[in-house]
Amino acid sequence: MSVDTYKKTAKDFTFPPNLDDYDAARREFTWSRARKELDWFGGHLNAAYNAVDRHTQTWRKNKVALYWEDEAGNEKKYTFEELSLLSNQIGNILKDFGVARGDRVFLFLPRIPELFFGFLGILKIGAIAGTLFSAFQEQALADRLGNSEAKVVITTRELKLRIDKVRKKLPNLKHILVVDEPSFIKSLAHASTELRIAHMDPDDYAFMLYTSGTTGKPKGVMHVHRAILQEHMTAKWALDLRDDDTYWCTADPGWVTGIAYEILGSWSNGVAAFVYAGRFDPKKWYSLLAKYKITVWYTAPTAIRMLMAAGGTLVKTFDLSHLRHLCSVGEPLNPEAIKWSIKVFGRPFHDTWWQTETGAICIANYPCMDIKIGSMGKPIPGLTADIVDDAGQPLGVKKEGNIAMKPKWPSQMHTIWRRPAKFKSYFMNGWYISGDRGWKDEDGYFWFIGRADDVIKTSGERVGPFEVESALVAHPKVVEAGVIGKPDVMRGEIVKAFVVLEPNTKPSEALKKELSEYVKKHLAGHAYPREIEFIDKLPKTRSGKIMRRILKAKEMGLPVGDTSTLEEY
Ligand code: WTA
């Protein structure tokens, strides 16, 4: 196979990169030596303190940490000191409501500043922060808030209406704080800015994220305060953040990228971050890159492909000469997208690979390294990654297998909330098995092939087929549903549902629309099926499990493979 390589030359570097010799770092780096990158309280630490407060003891105190703008053009900015004080105030308010160490406090907010200092405030008092993507609807909220037994939710007036619908099902939810209610605004203004930051054991929980697998309800992936060590180092190595950067991570803190690289790892490096609280729009995005003179940009392949589709003329009307480093995450970064970025920005996107469960970047293309276009790059220093077979045996080069890592890296999830058996199932023969398939080449570059399971990645967002199937089945006209990710040139995959209707229901285009809307309204705005097909019967195993693999093969016109365990097909 011929591979295009983007060779780095002097013109690729505005500055020498933070990681200037990958091979030497692989040989010499140890996590214990990297401890000094953080501020510790003896053997304790607090991830939020390391992200923000420690900078207030330095010249960065009055440096802008957050530039913020919304769709209407409202602008705000906050220094590190302001973020520190505001998060102290939120911490104090939560304490007044009886929130103690280990309690779960969820943020159900759009990307407004309160989301950022709220997150920090929760961690600072030793509580566990959870984030909920603002597209979630009642079912998704009930599942996550119910399973986590959240005590407090911080939200807005508009989003609260969705929680109200399921409040009865949430006996542990004691308080809902509404950030745009006058009473909250007043109590925030009056809250003390002084707070004793909780000194946490590095293995104490800091935040949790619900993520989807193939089966069952979403699971609560638990991350600890220590995770910030790897988030900090990878923000330095892979994102190459420096003090004079203005950095834009386009992710939402409802997902892991927004937590690790829009709050913790990025601010820990003292960088000025820009956050846009608006929807994707090519012209708007280019104008923001230009206006804020963004230097480092971390985004996702779907957004890049959508920018590509918007054409080359538009981009030329903006001065984007400040961009110096581009990174991507969340789904396969196709070679065309990299080639396009070289053409229009004069720089390649650097792919990074990781997962909610890994807590931070694990495999990446670094500024100092040539890019084999289409490859995800190489494992970070301090982490052993390999390709292993289904029994956990390393396979060597150029063989397809499971992308696996040797536990334990600092940002590795600690458990799955209340599901220890599920947590255990990730590990085999001394390896963490990621659920992704790939291969590595003779130079140690990793290449992504696909998921080993039925998890859907649509526009970079992770969707569990079971959640969508359950939402569809709740509709009175639906008997059964099987949901798959259908390959899509723009979005990577789209959610496609195969639906079996009640015997007396007539299939129609209007009904397809109704079902899509139903999922959008009850489960989540981003997880609804963009395509629905009515079907008489779903392929199932003898034990009654839906064979999504067969639906997918059929959809793609591929051979259906081994059907010996099928009920009948
Ligand atoms: C996929 C997002 C190809 C993969 C940080 C993984 C990728 C899942 C890449 C995790 C990449 C992430 N190339 N696929 N560079 N990065 N993925 O938990 O399937 O939302 O298992 O975490 O996204 O998604 P999650």
Radius of gyration: 23 Å
Counted beta strands: 28
Low-pLDDT sequence parts: none
Structural class, from helix and strand content? alpha/beta
Shape: globular
CATH fold assignment of the domain at 73-217: Rossmann fold
- What can be said about the biggest beta sheet? 9 strands, mixed
Straight-line N-to-C gap? 38 Å
Tell me the strand percentage band. Answer: 15-25%
Multimerization state: single chain
Helix content: 25-40%
InterPro entries: AMP-bd_C, AMP-bd_C_sf, AMP-binding, AMP-binding_CS, AMP-dep_synth/lig_dom, ANL_N_sf, Mitochondrial_ACSM
Family: Belongs to the ATP-dependent AMP-binding enzyme family.
Domain AMP-dependent synthetase/ligase: 57-406
Protein name: Acetate--CoA ligase
Brief synopsis:
This is Acetate--CoA ligase. The protein is α/β, with parallel strands linked by helices and 569 residues long.
Written overview of the protein:
The chain crosses the membrane at residues 115-136. Belongs to the ATP-dependent AMP-binding enzyme family. It holds the Pfam family AMP-binding. GO terms for molecular function: ATP binding; CoA-ligase activity; fatty acid ligase activity; fatty-acyl-CoA synthase activity. Keywords: ATP-binding, Ligase, Membrane, Nucleotide-binding, Transmembrane, Transmembrane helix. Helix 14 (335-345) links the parallel strand 13 and strand 14 (349-353). Among the domains are: 73-217, 3-Layer(aba) Sandwich (Rossmann fold), CATH 3.40.50.980; 456-567, GMP Synthetase, Chain A, domain 3, CATH 3.30.300. The chain has a nine-stranded mixed sheet. It has a seven-stranded mixed sheet with strand order 7-6-4-5-8-9-20, sandwiched between helices. Strands 18, 19, 21, 22 and 23 form a five-stranded antiparallel sheet that branches. The chain is globular, with a radius of gyration of 23 Å. With 569 residues, it is α/β, with parallel strands linked by helices. 5'-O-[(S)-ethoxy(hydroxy)phosphoryl]adenosine binds next to helix 10, strand 14, strand 22 and strand 23.
